[in-house]
Amino acid sequence: MGHPMIQLDNLDLKLSLGRLVLNVLYIKSGFFYHSMPEHRHSNGSYELHYIPSGHGRLIATGREFPLSPGSLYMTGPGIDHEQITDPSDPMFEYCIFFEALPSGRNHHERLYGRSGGDSEDIREIARLFLETPFWIGQDSRQLQHVFEKLAWEINTRSIGYRRNITIQLEQIVIGLVRNYTNNQPTLQTAPLKTLDDKRMVLIENNILYNYKHITIRTLADQLGLSVRQTERAVHKQYGMSLREKLLEARLQEAARLLDTTLLTIGEISEQVGYQSSESFTSHFKKWQGLTPSAYRTRTIVPTIQ
């Protein structure tokens, strides 16, 4: 089955749900031929995933979930998640990355207050979106058709396409929240600290893909900020320094390699950017309470539900 490919970023596109504004940072689609290592999004960031075909697994919130055609899930602020594809039937995924930007007076009043003419259902959609940092289930709202129309608009770019994209994105968000209400969402209050959108994506992509080489100086140069401003920005988004965040990214990738490959400890150590196996082993044991060898041979209890 063929699916339309999308690659649209550096957008200036915002959706309004009452007083909640969703800044759309990128829209992408494609096949997962390689698994996505464990990572988490910064405060105010929400990533919507829809799987129209293929199979795999999602590991999130310490649990494992099967992914199959029709799987829909949201990974919001602070949710550790890892996506593992089935090489014999690679997943195709539509992915939309939002930054939540509520505006107005105090947080509660601007989202849930009755002033300004917002309808009750729009306020409820905004509340459920913000307060659901993680949800997974089978789509019951026929969103595949909307994603396909969205892809067609993006790829053809006919006159008026931006207006139609906005309409379809609103339909997708409403469909997502309707899925929540049918499937008992897990509700948590998500903090809403924001950073300039392009800079936030740069930080997240560097941590996810360039953790072996990025430094605070090179990241500052990319962001167009001073080193001190960059340090403050990273700490604001993650609650830790860049050094701590990069160490976490290395160790998370090492844990994935220990679980999914036959690489030696030395090879994994080198692959995640350590100059010595001893240093890697020391950091890994401090992080997991087990040496890499012991971690690899531990007994794993399945948590699929």
UniProtKB/TrEMBL annotation:
InterPro entries: AraC-bd, Homeodomain-like_sf, HTH-like, HTH_AraC, HTH_AraC-typ_CS, RmlC-like_jellyroll, Tscrpt_reg_AraC-type_HTH
Domain of life: Bacteria
HTH araC/xylS-type domain segment(s): 197-298
Signal peptide: none
Gene Ontology molecular function: any one: sequence-specific DNA binding
Keywords: DNA-binding, Transcription, Transcription regulation
One Pfam family here: HTH_18
PANTHER family, per database record: ARAC-FAMILY TRANSCRIPTIONAL REGULATOR, HTH-TYPE TRANSCRIPTIONAL REGULATOR EXSA
Name of the protein in question: AraC-like ligand binding domain-containing protein
Species of origin: Paenibacillus catalpae
